[in-house]
Each structure stands twice: as C-alpha cells, then as structure tokens.
Amino acid sequence: MASCIAIAMGDPGGIGPRLIAHTLAKAPHVTRGPLLIFGDETTIREAAALDGIQCSFEQVDEEQLAGKSSSCLSTKKAVVVRCRGAQGLRFSRGIADAANGRAALAWIEAAVKACQTGIATSLVTAPISKEAIRAAGSPFPGHTELLAHLCGIEEVRMMLVGGGLRVVLETIHVALAEVPKLLAAARIQRTLEIIAAWSGRYLCKDAKIAVCGLNPHAGENGLFGREELDVIAPAIAKVRSVGIDASGPYPADTVFYRARRGEFDFVLAMYHDQGLAVLKTLAFETGVNVTLGLPFVRTSPDHGTAFDRAWLPDAKINTRSFQKALELAARWSRQEARMCARAQKKKTL
Fold first, then answer.
1. How confident is the model at residue 1 (pLDDT cuts 50, 70, 90)?
2. What's the pTM?
3. CB-based contacts of 198: which residues, under 8 Å, 6+ apart?
4. Which of 194, 193, 232 is CA-nearest to residue 212?
5. Is 52 helix (H, G, I), strand (E, B) or coil?
6. CA–centroid distance for 343 within its chain
C-alpha cells in the first residue's frame, strides 16, 4: 500500500534543500509512494546543482491541494508545494535569518495541514534553526513543541530510533541537576501510556517497555537514591495494572544491551544523555527522531542545519539519517494501514 509522505524543507539556508535533492533521486524506491515537498523549488534546484543532481518534480500552489486526498497523488513523482507564507522572501545561506524562519514555519504548518486532512499519511521534517524561527516570531523552541501546538496536543514525547534501539526520553534539554526534581510518577505513567498507544498503532500490540532507573544500579534498593522506589516503580505498577507491559526500573548500564538482544521493544530513559549516549554511539549517522503522541507519524533526521557546510560545493553530505527517516515514516504508515484494515475486517465478520 502506497503512503504519501509530506516533507517540510526546513531552513532554506541549511542542509534541508540538499537532503531533498538527493532524496528525489532515491525516495520512490524507499517510500513506494508519492512525496509532497513543502518548500521552494528554486532553492532545491540550486542545492541539486551543487552535487550535479537533476531534479524531477511537479509544482503546485498550496491552494490546489485543498479538498484533495492521497488517492489523487498516486503518481510516484514528487510534488513541490508553494506556500503562501513563504512566497516573495529572500533567503540567506549558512546563517540564522528571520526570513528563513518565516518560510520554514510556513512549510511546517502547510505540511501538518496536509497530514490532518488526509492528503499525506506522515510527515518528515528537515532541520530548522531555532534561532531563525525565534527571529520570525515563533514562541516555540523547536519542531516538537510547534507540532504539538498545531495538532492541539498537550503531551508529546521524543523518541530516537537507531542501532537496534527505540529510546524514549522522560526529560530532554534540562540541566542534569534538575532531572530528579522533574521526575514525577504521574508523568512517567503518562509517558508509558503514550509509548504503548503509539506502538499499538504503528508497530505492535503488547509492546515490552523497559524503564531505566535514575541512579547507578537502579538505586540499589535505596542505597544510592530513592527515586526508583518512590517515583519510578509506582508509575510502572500503575500502568501494569491496566495491561501495559512495562518493567523495571533497570540499571541503565545493562538494559540497552538487553533491548538490543530483543528482550524489549522500547527503553524509557530518565534523561537525555542516559539514552542518547548509547544510541548515538551505535547509530551516529543513521539515528532518527520520532515524535510520539501526534495523530500521524512524524520523523526527522537526528542532526541540525549544518550551516557551516550545507552550501559548500566540496562538502560531503551524509543523507543516511534523512533517508532512514523517510523509510521509517513510510513503513509505519503502511503498518498502520494494515492494522486498520485487519480491524475493519474483524468488524465485518
């Protein structure tokens, strides 16, 4: 079953246009369906010229998509969508710029709308500049918070995929000293519910979720701290009582090894580096960022705008993380469609 993927081009002065130019030559073999690229066709062609890539795509205005469905885009040819909010802007390259930020925001908003209206089945976002979108007036620190706002969702979670692991983060960009204060049983419980719901929709039912402890040796029964006993374990007990297969808290120095061997489908890490130091060691060039809790699949490459080399003709561009993001978006969309079809079949029997 083909899935139509929406791609938001990201910051036009960063690596996004170049990633898309490479994608246009490869993506149909990965996604098995059409691509809707929300971006600027001239910038994409200029990025392609840096690497001698011949781009082939159709062009439509944002208004032309209104009322269409994914079945209207059965062709495997890519379509670049021109968005009202990005027209007439002059883009800078290699720096954070307000005009770039305005365009990036317009492309994200239009891509989200395509997913919400059923034109696209999933969203892949190229890197944006937090400084640029702030200069453009956005109150959001990055993609995750913006996407949650556009979808009217209060709670989302960040997951990184790579190296045979799926790692969800309980806390993200905060000082390590603040982590113990931010851990709460109710929030950990909610995180586990979000993981289980996402897995049931896109991956598998009855996912096995391993939960890391915060302290060495998972606290050694209170010897090295009580967070495991007072906060983490009660959250696990709550979700287990409603049928979610979560377990732990486990020592973080062994649980990732067990997960890679297939014992667990997900690992919930208590803080950023606890989970991502392991994942990035295993999959530095192929890691994918996933937002859990949205009404559609959203993935992105696990790297930034690369302002320092994005538009240098002799710079080598690694597209593996972006290609993996596309591959996973397509795979999970097809899986959701299959699971929905099976559920519908059961209802009619």
1. very low
2. 0.92
3. 159, 292, 293
4. 232
5. coil
6. 26
